[in-house]
Amino acid sequence: MSTALEWNGPGFMREVERRSGTRVSVCFQCHKCSTGCPVGKDMDFLSSQIMRLIHLGAESATLTSRAIWLCASCEACTTRCPMEIDIASVMDTLRMMAVERGVDLTNARGKQFNQAFLDSVRRHGRAFELETLLFYKLKSGTIFADMDKAPQMLAKGKLALLPKRSRSVAQVRQVFKTAAREEKKR
Amino acid sequence: MKYSFFPGCSLESTAWDFNRSTRAVCGALDIELEDIPDWVCCGSTPAHASNASLALALPVVNLQKAELMGAPVMTACASCYSRLRTANHKVRHQPAERERAEKVTGRPYDGGVEVVHLLDVLVNRVGLDAIRKRVRRPLHGLRVASYYGCLLLRPPQIVAFDVPEHPTCMDSILAAAGASPVDWPYKTECCGAGLSITNADVVCRLGHRLLSMARQAGANCLAVACPMCQVNLDLRQADIHKSYGDLPDTPVLYVTQLLGLALGLAPDALGLDALSVSPTLLLRRGEVAPGVGGGATS
Predict the structure, then answer these.
(1) Do A178 and B106 touch (CB under 8 A)?
(2) Does B298 map to a domain?
(3) By CB neighbour count within 10 A (0-12 exposed, 13-18 middle, 19+ buried), where does B213 fall?
(4) Domain span at residue B176?
(5) Which of chain A's residues have a Cβ under 8 Å away from the Cβ of B206?
(6) Residues in Cβ contact with A56 at an 8 Å cutoff, skipping those fewer than 6 apart
């Protein structure tokens, strides 16, 4: 894929570095991260290319990429980077920045899943899988995907019908509230 | 040997068999588990991909509860293990993160609670000799591919209890239980984890790679220690066969289910009925557990 890109100054890279707590600038494009990435085949940009986009300050190309939502957080890249860049943490940071900036997230089913999961945790103190799945399906319009598995899962007791609430749910809600406030300062 | 146990959300639903078999095996090996009272979700990947403060604070809430119990924390779920260890690492080594954790949770925490994984406990604290002595029904005939996945071993700065690129702890446990671990190259390749719901096609591709490599290496079953690995390879195995052509059905068991069988525990106590790909035939053939499933799951 060829993309015309110009250097847009260091602002974007500095912000990514500050928030992810790792130095993207030291990447010298050895591609070791991309070579071992399990989902590289499905990505529009490989992880090493994402590092390069950040160097160039290509904020829009980076934050709208499909790659940042396909990262499975397996930490292979972080473990193997010869410059000790925490690439998985960079991916987390990019996902947060993409959501905050309201960029086009047509490809970001992960965002909808994360939201459904965390809403469930806030409500019950623990993840309630059935509810998470229902809300995700409604938000993403994938109602019928995997429906064939529901009867089997129910029969095997793998899909609880009621949430198992933690008695610390009030504390959890307070943590969600304070964490949201803290995050705005970053 | 006593631990404060953090089960995590998966062990209450999709991985109830991991929960049951972990408790059964620990009971048989004199490992006492006391659940952390009112534990809350560790936040898992959705938290660390959405809000760094939340991803730090949710594990810390649990560690603060565990601190009052005075014993190290043990987890069985690889993802919970990773989140709890990561939070500890940040609190210990980054003063700003500690400050943030204490501010968001409203309580002090210095990162002092030790967090260990079940496999670490089995290999390094119980020990292989002690396990070998307790084996009642050796798992002869089971050629197992030990599948460690991602989060048990990566990144090594945070979760080091085995070699990150070539781990052997699960292989050693299964060998002690009488099984034959196979050498295979995808021990730590990712199964797609949380992409299971959002990108099932990717997860099927990765699952196919793993299962076909395990078969090529001569395995007739897989052992796992992570609820996501188990679901992606077991529950999705029919989809994988549909998309990529037929491989023989390959049972994917929790390491605790296999070890439990070897210790002579009943299939019911290990939740073997919960598996999608039934291990019944395999286990009967090996005469590991002739009565497994009573025919109901085969």
Answers:
(1) yes
(2) no
(3) middle
(4) 138-287
(5) 38-39
(6) A5, A6, A7, A8
Query: Order of strands, edge to edge, in the sheet holding B115-117?
Result: B32-35, B2-6, B73-75, B115-117
Q: Does B89 touch chain A (CB under 8 A)?
A: no
Low-confidence winner among A39-43, A150-154, B51-55 (lowest mean pLDDT): A150-154
Both B156 and B246 in one domain: the answer is yes
* CATH code (residue B156): 3.40.50.11810
Rounded CA-CA distance B149/B215 in Å is: 17
Identify the CA nearest to B191 among candidates B148, B249, B149, B241.
B149
The Cα–Cα gap between B192 and A73 comes to 9
pLDDT value at B292 more than 90: no
Nearest to A68 by CA among A36, A32, A103: A103
Whether residue A129 and residue B206 make contact (CB cut-off 8 A), yes or no, is no
Q: How far is B95 from chain A (nearest CA, A)?
A: 13
Model pTM above 0.90:
yes
- Residue partners of B21: CB distance under 8 A and separation at least 6: B254, B256, B257, B260, B269, B270, B271
Q: Could you give the CA distance from residue A60 to residue A42 in angstroms, rounded to a whole number?
A: 20
Three-state DSSP at B224 gives strand
d(CA B291, CA A23): 57
Are B43 and B176 found together in one domain?
Answer: no
Scored b (16 or more CB within 10 A) or e, B69-92 reads bebbbbbbbbbbbbbbbbbbbbbe
In a domain, B267, yes or no: yes
Q: Is A175 on the interface with B (CB under 8 A)?
A: yes
Residue B44: CATH number of its domain: 1.20.1050.140
Tokens describing residue A101: 């900036």
Q: Which residues of A touch B48 (CB under 8 A)?
A: 73, 92
The answer on pLDDT for B294 being more than 50 is no
Nearest Cα residue in chain A from B297: A156
Average pLDDT score over residue span B35-50? 97
Which of B262, B264, B285, B261 minimizes the C-alpha distance to B275? B261
Pick from B87, B118, B149: which residue ends a domain?
Answer: B118
CA B147, CA A28: separation in Å to the nearest integer? 32
How far the first Cα of chain B sits from its last, in Å, is 38
| Residues B114 and B142 grouped into a single domain | no
Contact B279, B253 (CB under 8 A): yes
**Alpha-carbon torsion (B215, B266, B9, B167), positive or negative:** negative
* Cβ <8 Å between A73 and B38: no
